[in-house]
Amino acid sequence: MSLLIELPILILMGMGTVFVFSAGANVSSSFNFQKFYSFTTHKQLLFFPLAVCVMYAMAHLDAKRLSFTRAGVVKSYTPYLLALSAILLVLALVPGIGTPKNHSWRWLTLAVGPVKISFQPSELAKWAVIIYMAAILDLCADSLKKYWKRFIPICVVPAIIVALIIGQDFGTAAFILFLAFIMLIIGGATWWHFLTPMPIISAVFYFSIVRFPYRMERIKAFFDADSESSATYHALQSLIAVSTGGILGKGLGRGYSKHGHLPEDTTDFIFAIIGEELGFVGCMFVIGMFVLLTVMSLIAVNRSRNRFCKLLAAGIALTIGLQAAINIGVVTSVLPTKGIPLPFLSAGGTSLLLTAAAAGLLISIARQTEDLTVIDDLYPAMEIVNEPVAAAV
Amino acid sequence: MRINVAVTIILIVVIAVFALLGTRLFYLQKYKADDYEIESQSRQLAIITIKPPRGIIVDRNNNILAASNIVEVVYAEPRLMSDPDVAKLIAGRLSKILGMFGPEILKIIYKSKNPGYVKIKEGVTRIQREAIDKGITNGSLRGIGLMPKWQRYYPTGSLMSHIIGYTGYEEVGLEGLELKFNSQLEGGKGQDIFRVDAHRKPIGLEHSVGNMKEGSSLILTVDSTIQEFTRSALIKQWKAFEAESATAVVMDPWTGAILSLVSVPDYDPAKYSTATDSMRRNRALTDPFEPGSIFKPIVATIGLDCKAFGYNASFFCEHGSYSGKFGTIGEWAGHRFGNLTVYDVLVRSSNIGMAKIGRKIGYKRLHKGIKMFGFGSKTGIDIPGEAAGTVRNLKDWNSYSIRVSFGHEVSVTAIQMVRAYSILANGGSIITPHIVRAIVNGEGQITEIKRPDALTGHVIKTEVANWVVRKPLVGVVADKKGTGKKTALEKWQVFGKTGTANISGRGGYDETNYVASFAGGAPAEKPKIVVLVSVRKPNKSLGKGYSGGMVAAPAVKEIIEKTLTYMENI
Asked: What is the ipTM of this complex?
C-alpha cells in the first residue's frame, strides 16, 4: 500500500535528477568540480539522496504530532512551523537578508563556509498552511458552521501568509489560497461562507496583477500568441521542445532546447525537456506516476480513521497532484506562463526537500492505515475489541 | 463520511485534468511535431557554407595571374572583453605578437558593432600563428581567435588589372574575368547544417548538402611578357605627354586572340577598394571615341571592295578647303593637296580626299560597310563592360555625316578598331576578339572554348585587304611623306595609320584636346600582330606634339619590336 506511494515518488525523484543533469549539460557550460555546489546539476545529485533520507525520516514521524486534537495546540509543531514561515517570509523581504532574484524578494541566502545555501520561504509556508488547515479543521470539526466564530478566524492565518507572499510571488500565493479553499471544502465548511471573502480576494488579486507590468504581459501573451514578449518566447520555446519530441522523443540527452533555447529548463520547464527527449511515452509515464501517487494517496485517505490524518494526507496529495497539473499545463501552454516547479522533478533544493518531507508524512499516514495494531483514539471501541478476535480466527 | 466523498470527487477531477493534459500532449507531440520542428529551425539551425578554392587564372604560358590562398584571420570576440582591464591585458599581449600598436587593437575591439566578431588582422606569419595558437590554448588570449579564410591574390599586381578584374567580399567576382566567369571560377559550394545553441554555437552536425566542386580555372590568350611590353611602352608615352588616359591592345589578327590589353590609369586588383572609378575603367572596351584618321583605311577598303573606284582612282582635294551643304572641310596642318590617288589620300591623310571617297561610295554602301566591319555593335569579347560605340542609323545620316569618311560622326572602341585592322591584316575574315582560351575544370580536364572558325566569313575580298595593308598602310610608315614614320623598323615591315582626332565637346570640336592614335601591325607580308595605341588628351602645351604620329607611333614601334623579337625567340 504505502509502497505504491513510495515507488512513484522515488521514480520521479530519480527521473528528476537525470533530467536536471541532462538539461544542465549543454555546450555552453563547462564543469568545474572545485565549485561543485554552484552548479544546479551537481547540486541535484546531492539533493536526491538527501531528499530520500528526509522522506523516510519523516515517514517514521507520527503525523499526529502535528495535530491540535492529539498533541494539543501548544504542544503541536504546527503553530511553530507557521510562525517560522511567517518570520522567514518577512526576513526575505528585508534588504540585506533577502536576496532578490528576477526583481522579486523570494529568497533567503545563508552562507555556510564557502557554500551559499538559498532557501525559498514561500515553499515552507505552503506546507505550513496545509498542515495548519488540516489541524484547525480537525480541531473545529463540529463548529465549522459558525461564520464569525469559526470560518473567519480560520481564514485569517492563510490570509496573512498569502498577503506576505503575493507581492513577490503571485503564483505561489494564488496556489496557497486555492489549496486553503479546497481544504475548507474537504473539511466541511458551509458553501456560502466561501462567497463572502471573494470580493476582497478578487480586488487584491486584480491590483497585484495590474501593479506589476510583467504579470499583465504574461497574461496578455497567453491570449495573444503573436505578441513579441519574452513570455511568448518562453511559451513558444516550451511548445517547440515538447512537440518536436514526438511520440518516442529524441533520446535521453539528445534534446536541443536545453542549449540555451528554453529558459528555466532545469527548473519550471523540466517537463518540456522530458517531452523533447522521451516524447509522448515519457510524458505519459511521468503523468502516470503522478496519477498513481494521487490515487494511492487518496485511497489511503479513505482508509484512514483519523480526521486530522485524512485532511493532512488529502492536502499533501492534492498539493502535489495539482502542482504537477499546473506545471504541465504551463509547459503545454494550456495555462499562462507561471513559475511553479514540478514536484520531485524540477531542480531546486527547497522545493525538493520540503516536498519529500511532506511525502514522508503522507507515507507515514499510509503506513498507519495498513498497520491495524495501531490503536486510534477515534476508533470506535467495538472495533478495537473485535480486532484480536478477528485475528485469532 | 463527508471527507471521503469530497476526496473522491476531487480525485476524479484531478484524474480528469491529467487525462486532458495527456490529450493535449498527444495532440502536440503527434500532430504538431512537424509544425514546431519548422518553427524551431530558425533558432536551432545554422548553416555553414564551405567554399572550395576558387579557380586560378593563368596566361598563355601558364603564369599565374590570379589565385586563392588561405590566410589566417586574427579576430576578437568583443563580448568576452567587456571588462576594460581584461581587454587591455589581452590587447597588450596581442600587440607583442602581431607588432601592432596596442591601443589600435583596443580601438578595433571597442568600435565593433558585432559583439561576436571583429577582424583584427588578416594574414599572419607562421611564428605569429603559433604564438596566438598557444595563447588561445592556455587561455592567455581569451576572446581572440584564428580563422582561415580564402584570399585572392594577384601576383602580377596592376599589370593585368583590367583583364582580370577583382573579387570582393567572400571572393565574389566584381570586375573583369573574375566577374564574367564568376560561376565557373567559384565551383560548387557545400553546406553543413548544424544544430546550434542559443549563442549559435554548434552542438552537432545535422547533415551536409550541396555538391562541393572545385572551381574551374581559366587559361588566357594573354601573354604576360607582351602585356608587360605593351604596358611599359604605353605608360612611357602616357607620362611623357601628361595625357589623361591611354589604352593599347595587341591582337593575333588570324584568331582574334588578345595578346595584351592595357588601359591606364590602372590599379592593383588586390587593393581595388582604393582605386578610383577612373582607374577601374577598362577604356579599351568601355570608352568609345571618335577615331579620326585611323578610320580612313576602313572607308577606303569599303570603297575598293564594292568597286566604287579602282586602285588607281584619283581624287581632287580642293587645295585644302572643301565647302558645301556639309559645311567646310579642311586638311590637317593646313595642307593644300591637289589630285591625290587612293594611296596618297591614305598616306598623307587627306580629309577632303576621304570626303570625296565617301561621296563616291554613297551613304548606303558606306553604312553597310561600316556595320560589316563590326562598328556600332559589341565585339562579343569575353571581358565584361563592353560598349557598342555609335554608328547612327542610315536614315539619321545628313549631309554633315560625310565626315564619317574620315572618322568623325562615329564613335568606336579600341577593341572594335583592333578587330577592324585585324580583318584587314588577315585578308578580310571575321574574327571575334577573345581573351579566354580554355577552361580547366576541378579534375584538370581542359576544355578549349570553341570559336567560329576563323577565315570562314569574309567581310571584304582578300585581294583588297592585302592591297590596303601592303600599299597605303605600309606607305604611311615607309613613304617619306607618310605620317607614321616613327614606327618604322628595320627588321620588319610595319604597316598602319595614324590618327589625331579632335575631341568633340560641348559646342563643337575642341582645338586643344585630341585623341592621338596609331593602328597597325607587322610584318606587312603576313601580319603576326595587330596593335592599337590610343592616347587621350596629350598635353599640347608641352610642345612635344599631340598627333598620332608623335604620341602613339613611338609606343607602337616599341611594342611591335619587342613583341616580334620575343615571339621569334620562343
From this structure: 0.88
